[in-house]
Amino acid sequence: MQSINLHLKILIAIMVSLGLGITAYQIYVLKIPVTEDQTDDIWSLDARFEFQANQGVPIKAQMFIPPFTQDYTSLNESFISNNYGVSINQVQGNRRVTWSARRASGTQTLYYRLVLTRRFGSDVAPMAPPPARLPIVLEGPEQVAADALVTPIRQNSADIETFITEAIRRVNDITDDNVRLLLGGQTSALDKARVIDILLSQARIPLEMVHTIRLEPVANQTPELWLRSHNGERWLYFHPETGQQGIPDNRMVWWTGNQPLFNLEGGRQGRVSITINNSEMNALRLAQMTTDTGGSPLLEYSLYGLPLHAQQVYQVMIMIPIGVLVILILRNLVGIQTLGTFTPVLISLAFRETQVGWGIVLFTLITALGLSLRSYLEHLKLQMLPRLSIVLTFVVIIIAVISLFSHKLGIERALSVSLFPMVILTMTIERLSINWEERGGAASFKVAVGTLVAATLAHLLMTIPELAYFVFTFPAILLVLVGFMLAMGRYRGYRLTELMRFKALTKQG
After folding, report:
1. What is the pLDDT along the chain (509 residues), one digit of tens a residue?
2. Using alpha carbons only, what angle is made at residue 246 by residues 163 and 285, rounded to the nearest 5 degrees?
């Protein structure tokens, strides 16, 4: 027994020392910020290129990628593909990557990742002004329509800036017959930009179409079209539909020109989805900056190296041990009775969608109705498996009915009841009913309340943004939690509820 105690103490010391040591190394040696608000605006950009490959033909997939000649500097750029050759070329002032393969079949997925930050200082040379341009040649009624528009634009403008603003305003007036003729029935932003380019060319004013993305944490972002021109001194940016002048600070130019984002040969149904993320990028910034110079392997294999969609999953999963720790403390130290350890944690995860208030109401309602059904089925003397199957079916029906009525009443939050794990609800109802039969209604009610209290406290702790950032950035701290759980495994003392329960005996003694 003494050897077991010594072994346990050594194991606890190893877990705690290793967890604290790795975390301290990340904080004090690698200088990873402890809080998220110390972020220096590090942006991680993921572009996912999916398509169906044609059988028996070579594949060439091309996609424009952001340039490095603007106000941002790259910390890391990577191209992820399976059995594809990769090359980067300059095409009309743009960078374009080409993935090529001799043969492929089925669904193909190519990844492009760019980690960047804003460039400080003035080490980037300003873009040279564009060369003088010639008017776009038009014929017949199109030339007449363009002249009819350019003449009043000249009269109502004083310089290049006001000329472009007036041209944008007139092109967006689709009630004008001349504008409709030049648009040809199309009203997209690209078509309007094309007509604006025609009008500016008649006045020999240079114009470029620039496709931008917003540096905001948004999934499935679509590039937005802007226009830019040079007035002889500086570049001017305009929105082709609203006429807004001056590109916002959170926009970054991806590519220029009227060509599409990607071009696909030997495939079909091509689609590019862009995901931008800047949250919790401190460790990733350090990782990418030190990888090329032989940085620490601890940084190279951090959770920030995962794809963004996987990071979002693990940001939730890695907080589960925190919830388990809450349940452990409540059960072993406080003495609250719950339906096991993992049931309250799973319920707390469902609270992320329903919120705590609605989650408690919906959980209580569904569980009460399920217990009533379970009590009725008990009188029919059914076996456990058919009984569980019937309860599960009625749980689905109850969820559908609650969602329907809540939608009719305008309570949209209640629609998230469908996110509750139906199996967990079914087993909860079954275990509560068994507890009711064995220990009585009061004990069953106490367990149900304890489960809800534990799930609520676990949810509140697991959703603290500062704690979620810390655990995700410094996952070694979970080893400290393991050490604490090992120590709790040998705890044989009184629980808080037991001290209150036997308080009268203490007074008598």
Report:
1. 566 678 888 888 899 999 999 888 888 876 677 776 655 667 888 999 999 988 888 999 999 998 876 677 777 788 988 889 999 998 888 899 999 998 888 889 999 998 877 653 334 455 666 777 788 888 888 888 988 998 898 888 888 889 999 999 989 988 888 888 988 888 888 889 999 988 888 888 888 899 999 888 877 888 999 999 888 888 889 999 888 888 888 888 899 988 899 999 988 999 999 988 875 444 444 444 434 434 455 555 677 667 767 777 788 889 999 999 998 888 888 888 888 778 888 888 878 777 778 778 878 888 888 778 877 877 777 777 777 778 778 877 877 787 777 767 766 555 555 555 566 776 777 777 777 777 777 777 888 888 888 989 998 999 888 898 889 888 899 999 999 888 887 777 666 766 666 565 555 55
2. 150
Sequence-separated (6 or more) residues with CB below 8 Å from residue 466: 35, 36
| Whether 391 contacts 373, CB under 8 Å | yes
Alpha carbon distance 173, 171 (integer Å): 5
Decide: residue 5, CB within 10 A, 0-12 exposed, 13-18 middle, 19+ buried: exposed
Evaluate whether 178 touches 167 at the Cβ level (below 8 Å).
Answer: no
Dist CA 137 CA 201 (whole Å): 9
Angle between helices 320-329 and 441-462 (to 10 degrees): 140
Q: What is the DSSP string of 304-319?
A: GGS-HHHHHHHHHHTT
Amino acid identity, residue 56? G
DSSP state of 130: P
Residues in CB range of 73: below 8 A, 6 or more apart: 116, 117, 118, 119
- The closest alpha carbon to 41, from 206, 216, 182, belongs to 216
H helical segments located in 380-440: 384-408, 422-439
Q: Copy the structure tokens of residue 501.
A: 């329960």
Q: What is the 3-state secondary structure (H, E, C) of 68-109?
A: CCCCEEEEEEEEECCCCEEEEEEECCEEEEEEEECCCCEEEE
Q: Are 192 and 171 in contact (CB under 8 A)?
A: yes
Token pair, residue 287, equals 């990782």
Q: pTM of the predicted model, to two decimals?
A: 0.51
308-317 and 465-473 are packed helices; what angle lies between their axes, rounded to 10 degrees? 110
264 half-sphere exposure, CB direction, 13 A CA radius: 18
Distance, in Å, from the CA atom of 449 to the CA atom of 249, rounded to the nearest integer, reads 51
